[in-house]
Amino acid sequence: MTRTLATETVAKIGEQVLIKGWVNARRDHGKIVFVDIRDRSGVVQVVGKTDLGDLRPEDVVYITGLVKKRPDNLVNPELATGTVEVAAEKVEVVSKAEELPFDMGQETLEVELPTLLDYRALTLRHPKVQAIFKVQEVVIDSFRKAMQAKDFMEFQAPSIISSAPEGGAEIFEVKYFDHKTYLAQSPQLYKSLLVGDFERVFSVNKVFRAEPSVTTRHLTEVVSLDAEFGFIDSWVEVKDMAEYAIKFILAEVEKKCAQELAMFGISVPKVADEIPHLKLREAQEIIFQRTGRDCRQEKDLAPEDEREICKWSLEEKGSDLVFVTHYPTRARPFYTYPDDKDPEFNQGFDLLGRGVEWLTGGRRIHDYQTLLAHAKEWGVSPENIQIYLQAFKYGMPPLGGFAFGAERITMLTLGLGNIREATMFPRDMERVDVRLSTIQK
Amino acid sequence: MTRTLATETVAKIGEQVLIKGWVNARRDHGKIVFVDIRDRSGVVQVVGKTDLGDLRPEDVVYITGLVKKRPDNLVNPELATGTVEVAAEKVEVVSKAEELPFDMGQETLEVELPTLLDYRALTLRHPKVQAIFKVQEVVIDSFRKAMQAKDFMEFQAPSIISSAPEGGAEIFEVKYFDHKTYLAQSPQLYKSLLVGDFERVFSVNKVFRAEPSVTTRHLTEVVSLDAEFGFIDSWVEVKDMAEYAIKFILAEVEKKCAQELAMFGISVPKVADEIPHLKLREAQEIIFQRTGRDCRQEKDLAPEDEREICKWSLEEKGSDLVFVTHYPTRARPFYTYPDDKDPEFNQGFDLLGRGVEWLTGGRRIHDYQTLLAHAKEWGVSPENIQIYLQAFKYGMPPLGGFAFGAERITMLTLGLGNIREATMFPRDMERVDVRLSTIQK
User: HSE on the CB side for B40, CA within 13 Å?
Assistant: First the structure.
């Protein structure tokens, strides 16, 4: 007998079906037993007697039974299959679950973060936890679709690199046969050099940062959504492409994840027709005017400043997202393009939303000699970036690009409090699946 | 003036256009100079006089000019834009290229492998080299589309892992703050445990193997295309899903990469309506009958045996691809499902094609106690696979899955001699972009 998925039962009233799934919940009403069976499509109620008697949550069962229409007064409007139930005829337990360490039946899984992660194989079964990764899947897939639609070519960026191009801080070392190598902090140099080959490229890949601190928004391993393209006239085209990408992603999430957003009681961020943009110094002036906090000489926005400018953007411009542009050139990497009129500031930008940075991007230097001079000035050894410099030596168009973190977009779209919730298997200073204190030094 | 792509010129005869791209080639005919301009769409010929005089291959130029129909006798049928040329009016050199270290104008780039890789930023500009990565992009994208169509959920597998679950051989060590961690050799344990959460999952991600030897088909960092799913009845469903995936991928490559395949003078592998499958012992008997080489007691096929069974498959079954199944259980990982009738052999399979392994897969043990017993018997510490075992403790359906290497499919589809050609930035015992001998120990 062919398997019927839970949500397919509504179209099979009066038919005998074979349901395969996990026991999601169990309710006893005297001699009558109800079990909700969960599979990848959703949940359906099965009704039986003593044959369901020893079923426990998370048991894997194959149940043969008859699909029946529920009487009107017993319809459950909150369930996609709430109009039917399956009357059990034969029950086979394929895998018996041990007793659960906590109640998985609550609408929101109420466990502390360490427990959520210690029991990750189990907690990922909770519908509201699964919703997070449905959203993440749509974010990543939509990014690829957005870039493909603009003729960007997908490439696979390397993870192991031969040197720490921008210095050794916050970079992981890999013992590579007899040599020292490192884990890439970003595909920046690769995506830039590939503009010389393919003009427009994007990648979805892991980047690694040895963040020496524990915060709610940093991990050591994240999924970076990167794009880079050539033949631009100014940084504005780069900003516009980033704006197109994030709008595309959010529109897809809104369309495909209505149910998931509803579970979190949240809407996708509000975006103005044109996302507002302002220079760092302008943003700092606004913050000073609004709060009296004088950050007007700072090189970057502190977390509280990021929150304030997001508040301003929503209140004054009706946009949850806002670009801040023109950061001090010296505070950004060597390849950043200085502004023509005021070279102390660069043609780069961050996109902020809901109080946090979502994306960073900008125009890059394309002239070989200027790039070489900047590298030296920034203390980056040309020896360490040979393959990158090579691209510029042999003809490179004006270029720029941007990068998002997939986990951050997921976290901020759903309003989660901690990026670890937006990562199936988060890695940080304290944990790599298991707590670091339990593994060898 | 808006940019016109090279291939768009054919629809703009009589119009003034702005072309932006690289000088692909240059030909002097007395006072007349022809330059081919290359951009992401293709190549178009520009004709001019002394104004094109100092252009060199790989210079980045912006050329304004008039699109003219070529006289019939000067049409180039091999070029998509061969019916037109652009008469240059204004030429701006945006980035001047240094003199090239070798001729990039040949139809096939004739450089040795070390040169191909030493100059990777440059050699990736060659059309026939680019074709390889167009095919790879289609392979990877088609894999995702194939799995999405079957309701598989995409997930992001971690790269840094806390222990070497199957022993420490061929695994890279990462210095992780004060602890020893490793780079994942496969997402196997993660994709299996996620079957307990999402039923059907797939991933496209990097895996790392400290291969201590230099061969034409191994790298230390490759892109693994992984799928795993639950509620199967036998290994045959896993084989069938793998067969569906590879057929889908090859059909897409055939459809979308006709031009690229033609450049390599090759067709996608021939596939029978049903890909033939035979047990290892049957394959070995056939090899013995055909060659007199007696490998009938071996645990695996040697490279020459793989080539022979592929030859047999093509000659006798009309299929470039062939499944070999039922390898000795002890020669495979601890989670492999033994055959019910003959537990010395397992319910696993390899897919071979054009003389080389393409894919490996099979059914996995889903019973917690059996899995635990096997882990111990195989010398795998349950401590090291806690999060994985947890999934089985709390109810796991019968499951199986498979994995391809994206670079191998690309290499074998195009008939390349070395997997390094099918990788933008190949890593091996001797090279991580630069030769290892040049970097620190």
Answer: 19
Buried b (16+ CB within 10 A) or exposed e, A200-226: bbbbbbbbbbbeeeeeebbbbbbbbbb
Task: Write the DSSP assignment of A414-432 as a string of letters.
Answer: HT-S-GGGG-SS-EETTEE
Chain B residues inside the 8 Å CB shell of A408: none
Q: Hey, is B340 helix, strand or coil?
A: coil
Helix axes A368-377, A386-393, angle to 10 degrees: 150
Q: Which residues of B338-358 are buried (b: 16+ CB within 10 A; e: fewer)?
A: bbeeeeebbbbbbbbbbbbbb
Task: Please tell me if residue B429 touches chain A, with a CB cutoff of 8 Å.
Answer: yes
8 A C-beta contact, residue B434 and residue A386: yes
pLDDT at site A149: 98
Backbone angles phi, psi at B290, to 5 degrees: -80, -30
| Window 110-139 of A, Cβ < 8 Å to B | 119-122, 124-125, 130, 133-134, 136-137
> Cβ contacts of residue B305 below 8 Å, gap of 6+?
B283, B284, B287, B293, B295, B298
**Contacts of B263 by beta carbon, 8 Å cutoff, 6+ apart:** B127, B128, B131
The residues, any chain, with a CB within 8 Å of residue B341's CB and separated by 6 or more, are none
- pLDDT for res B356: 92
- Chain A residue numbers with beta carbons less than 8 Å from the beta carbon of B395 are 22-23, 58-60, 95-97
DSSP characters for B163-179?
S-TT-STT--EEEETTE
Domain-wise residue ranges, chain A: 3-95, 120-438
CATH superfamily of B120-438: Bira Bifunctional Protein; Domain 2 (3.30.930.10)
Q: Span B3-95: which CATH code?
A: 2.40.50.140
Q: What is the mean pLDDT of residues B390-407?
A: 97
Strand B16-29 and strand B32-39: pairing? antiparallel
Complete DSSP assignment for B112-133: -HHHHHHTHHHHTTSHHHHHHH
pTM of the model: 0.97
Give the residue from A156, A234, A365, A429 with the most B CB atoms within 10 Å of its CB, the best one to mutate: A156
Residues of A in contact with B122 (CB under 8 A): 390-391, 394
Q: Residue A167 — very low, low, confident or very high, per pLDDT cuts 50/70/90?
A: low
